[in-house]
Sequence to fold (946 residues):
Amino acid sequence: MSTELTESAVPPTTESSSDPSRRTFIATTTVVGGAVVAGGLIASPLLGAQEAAAAEAPPSSRVRLTVNGKRHTVTVDNRTSLLDLLRERLDLPGTKKGCNAGACGACTVLVDGQRVNSCLTLAVRLEGAEVTTIEGLAPGGADGELHPLQAAFVEQDAFQCGYCTPGQIMSGVGCIQEGHTGSKDEIREWMSGNICRCGCYVKIVRAVEQTARGK
Amino acid sequence: MSPQPQSAVGAPLSRVDGRLKVTGKATYAAEHDIEGVVHAVIVDSAIGRGRITGIDTRAALAQPGVIKVISHLNSPKLAYRGNPETYDPPGNKQLRVFQDDKVLFRGQPVAVVVATTLEVAQHAAELVKVRYDAEQSSTDMASAPAGEPVTYARGDADKAFASAAVQVDATYQQARAHHNAMEPHATIARWDGDKLTLWDKTQWPIGIQKDVAAQFGIPIDSVRIIAPFVGGSFGNAMRAWPHIATTALAARETGRPVKLVLSRRQLYFGVGYRPSYEYRVRLGSDRRGRVSAMVQHLKAETSSYENFTEGVLHAGQMVYKAPHVRQDYRTVPLDVNTPVWMRGPGFATASFALESAMDELAHELGIDPIELRRRNEPEEDPSNQLPFSTRRLRECYTVGAREFGWHRRNPRPRSTRDGDWLIGTGMAVGTYDVLRSGAQARVRLNADGTALIQSATSDMGPGTYTSQSQVAADALGLTMRNVTFQLGDSTMPTAPPHGGSQTMINVGSAVQDGCDKVRLQAIKLAVEDKDSPLYGADADDIVVRAGRLHRSNDPARGETYRQLLARNNRTHLEVLGSWTPSESRHSMYTYGAIFAEVAVDARLGLVRVRRMLGVFDAGRIISPKLADSQALGGMVGGIGAALLEHTATDHRDGRIVNADLANYLVPVNADIPDLRGIFLDGGEDLKADPIGVKGLGEIVYIGVAPAIANAVFNATGRRVRELPITVEAML
Fold:
């Protein structure tokens, strides 16, 4: 099954825009990187008002990737993270944005079977990748049978608010696949990239352990 | 009336919304699929105090996809009427977005960029150039003047302290802490004519509705708040923080639905936090450990524009029976955004100071810490002479000491070792208010034998959906799967804030009332219906079980709701349930005793919690499986407060230097050992409310930090009077 997203993520260019050039591309990305550190105060000398007035459409790329078994061809603004692609364009908000900086694990998905922070993964580098999100984990689909780890989370009450839960579960699936479930201590260590602010760690460990043993 | 059999309440059921949460189908604020939505990003001030002298938006506006940049230069004036029912600090002094050129703290919204995509909005926000006339900001509580105190006194505490045989005089510091719920605060705003709908992260749909209506000067019913799922909050989502008005304004000015999600960094100044505190305690006692005097001086930070105070004084007035107590509580206005309640508000802060001081006194006297507390246990509330509705703290001590193995403890500090690790144990008491304010719930029993219950409450994680369904299922005599509880919509019947552990007390009592009334309506219908097998039966003798009405002593004689309603051509029975608390003639609190074992690396100073037990008197427990999760989660939060959490500000420019989750440390999985929570059995408190609950989300957190601090003292002989207890403090 394949879908072609017809709408473009790239906003229409303005009349004043000129042809893209390598120089403005570099200048723009430099400011993006620098501004993260500098905050809103310091204007970059690289991007004065005159230069900005001629800003072009942001560089975009066409990417083919598979998400939850479904093939997509999308044109993405090169700045788009996998997380924002999932949440804002592919209607898959099950993957959560907690910190957008790789520190909390709420955005954990599997890319080619490996758990990754989707907030730190640019969508443009995922050509040909297979992505699995929480929405694609249950073998029976949304209304069918749950993945054993999903069922274990419900049974153990391994969540409260539920916001970190998709990331915890995807990370737990990765943890089990990696074989890092030899002891409670090992699970704790290898599940420590996923923050649960409601404090459900004891039960998250139980759910991962139960699922790993049932494998 | 015959008591309904209890089958759902008290049963260890799994969450009714569990499947939605583990499949990613629970919809949080930013995830509602709103046609045509565009994205907003706030530009926050880069100075700590001063004035905006210019805003250059040309570069931002030149970005393809940018729709509008709003700042005080082009924003319309908003009404900002006062809302008499607000929970904001008094005086309607809330921050008013884009209304003038003043900068009151670093991070204040100074502009908002609206664009067609998130990437463009984020980039354009960085291109907005703001010029300032900066002044030196004041953000350090230690070097700023305090305001007039709030005071309390009974007896003559200064005289009693001066003449006491044994004295403890210690000052405890607690760092500013941020809630850091996993879901960032987020709002989607859409105007349909003059009607505003907000999909918002909130613990209080009704409160936000009224606050936003007042901000925009529009009728209350012109605003609708929708919040079916809340990704944690811990007290931070009960005010209409500036980003909400910002989003609504952006939507009105652009004529588009607008989505705004605060970045993790912006959550450190865009919403609230627990203020830093300094709490000096002077305890005077006789040699047998009877505390005669407690003198307490408190100081907390607040903003320059609002005076935030919280219930930090109660505990120091009523946990122990000291006849002489004096308190003063001052706030220190600083160039910061306004603080707010955070889990265990006030009481957790007080608990660290009071319970540390009691531990210091116990050590000074050579009396076991539990025994010292027993000797100061009051028989009535010493602050108002009211009897306690229930106070089972002694039982918490007994059960806790037994289950924790307290008798094995060596009271001499630095006396237990395990290799490089110094081992110690400690305990502390927690207390929290029972907040009774009333609520309503609509109960509708359908002809198909299902029921729908609605109340404008919230579920930030404790499990409101599940526990209210349990109350309703038993009161209606239905199975859980035939009951649906809905919340998170301001068009539903009113409910108090989902915070301060008051949801089950108030909403639960309203649900019970509505369901009782519907059940009694059905029973009346049956006993007056000649065609019912229950015709002529005594209504008081009828119970309902699994949707079937029957006589309590004759299960064979009866019929189902479905049969009854169908025969009477009723599509449904509906009642607005409500509960209004009567004036209290009792002192009502929850209680807990927390026990902790820590290991401190003798050379590195690293503190690790090895095990922890909490024993709680929280009244009747509706949903034991979920209550247990809260108990463990409260302890995890307390471990964070004790050992990790500290918002650090650079006082030179007012910048928060650790405004992210990599540098603001919270507990991770590897920090947490096996934990255990026990709720005392048979604790229903019918003086508190009709369903006998006292609330539990706060009490499970309070007392955790001092129990750990006291254990650290037992392990090392070092008394740390500042939270968090860092490695630096141990070296």
